[in-house]
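A protein record in our archive is deliberately plain, so that people and models can read it alike. The record that follows is passed on verbatim for readers who wish to inspect the format.
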Amino acid sequence: MLFLHIAIAFTSLGYAAYVFFAPSATKLYATYGLTVLTLATGTYLVISKPAHLLQSCTMGLVYLGLILTATALTRHKLARG
């Protein structure tokens, strides 16, 4: 499960970067889906192995900050035209 979580997270970061340079509403929705999937698998891992909670939450916040920034910038690009 950890490998799947990491693969989804890196895929979503790469895809968010791609969508920033080639924005479209459909691609943005795919970014949302990958983000939710990453958060869901991360939540599962934290619940199943709570010993690494602080490290997991810190990395999760960094990930979420990067994704939210990329998504907001992409939405702004789409709104401008």
Remarks:
- The two ends are 40 Å apart (CA to CA).
- Residues 61 and 67 are 10 Å apart (CA to CA).
